[in-house]
Amino acid sequence: MTETSDATTTTSLHIVRHAAAAVDPSRYADHRLMGLSADGVRHARHAARNLHRLTDLDRIVSSPLPRALETARPLGDVFGIDVEVDDRLSERTFPDLYGWLYDDVTRNHGADVTQRLLSNSDQLDGWGARPLDECQTRVVDLVKELAQGTTRNVVLVTHGGPHGWLLAHLLHLGVPDGPRLFHFRHVGYTYVALDPTARLQVIHAVNQPLVDSP
Fold first, then answer.
1. Per residue in 45-58, pLDDT tens?
2. Which domain holds residue 194?
């Protein structure tokens, strides 16, 4: 039987977008392989030290994608906690386009598709991507599990998409069906308090920098 929290307990939820990734600007990356850049590695370490100054943590849960895991591991080192991996924190990507040159995307599918891949892929469907509402639901389900359990301070290391979908849900904005409502900086930090049903109680910070120049 899973232990659950009582009605007066709140969960402190910290959400961190990954640090800057090493990308080839000429092509759509294979997200399964894309790790942090040299600056990203440095910023991830700096962010971990800064978060340690701000709070205690009971759990660290990360997206399985390399750029998120490489951001989460310094947190694990600083807090002395194992990093847990949960697929529900993954970014929504387009596997059928992994490795494509953007010039080829434009030539085969149009400039609008290229522009959305680069700026607002929530407005794209197809090419192996999961439905947007499904992706939002999986993140919300994870947070509900955390709020109903015994963990009181948890950090999620994830991506701009899941970070924004979760915040949209907590603010009762529904499933985004237009331009992204939130644009999170690398190692941008959001901190909220939730009741045991995962309802929002307090917003302490949204998209605050954990490093001086991410």
1. 999 999 999 999 99
2. 11-209
Residue 32 lies in a domain: yes
- With respect to residue 214, please indicate whether it lies within any of the assigned structural domains: no
Specify whether the CB–CB gap between 187 and 210 falls below 8 A. yes
Q: Measured between alpha carbons, how far is 30 from 10 in angstroms, rounded to an integer?
A: 38
Q: What is the Cα gyration radius of the chain?
A: 17
Question: What total number of domains does the chain contain?
Answer: 1
Residue 58 lies in a domain: yes
Report the predicted TM-score, pTM, of the whole model to 2 decimal places.
0.93
d(CA 58, CA 125): 37
Give 130's pLDDT tier (boundaries 50, 70, 90): very high
> Are the C-beta atoms of 28 and 96 separated by less than 8 Å?
no
Give the residue among 43, 2, 54 at the shortest CA–CA distance from 20.
Answer: 43
For residue 211, pLDDT beyond 70? yes
Q: What is the CATH number of the domain that holds 172?
A: 3.40.50.1240
